[in-house]
Amino acid sequence: MDDCLFCKMVSGEITPDSVYEDDQVLAFRDINPQAPLHVLVIPKVHIATLNDLDDDQGPLLGHMMHTAIKIATGEGYAERGYRTVINCNAEAGQSVFHIHLHLLAGRPMHWPPG
Ligand code: AMP
Ligand code: ZN
Fold this sequence. Notes:
Layout: H1 5-11, E1 18-21, E2 25-29, E3 37-43, H2 58-74, E4 83-85, E5 101-105
Antiparallel strand pairs: 1-2, 2-3, 3-5, 4-5
């Protein structure tokens, strides 16, 4: 999608601080980190919100989650703990309308989130 920030990262028009990439997903460090580890995992295909996820895209979402698990494990947070979040639409705090899985770790997290 032409005017999508994260599609521009997938196409190479914008270069993110990447930590992982394969044929389905790209993972990069958040520009405004909310924890010592704050990585966004995105699908390479444009999906605006979780509401736009097709029934047959469950495996893609699973792959995004497994990617986050691998990154958290590689950075040493598997046992200590980490959080994964997908914000859907404005009230939940979504500001970039290309779905992304937040991976946060490295500080105590509170519940419920704000
Ligand atoms: P959300 O509010 O859930 O839509 O999350 C969007 C995230 O994208 C925020 O945490 C932003 O800090 C992050 N973000 C925005 N622009 C960039 C960028 N150019 N590179 C990396 N992360 C970004
Ligand atoms: Zn996009």
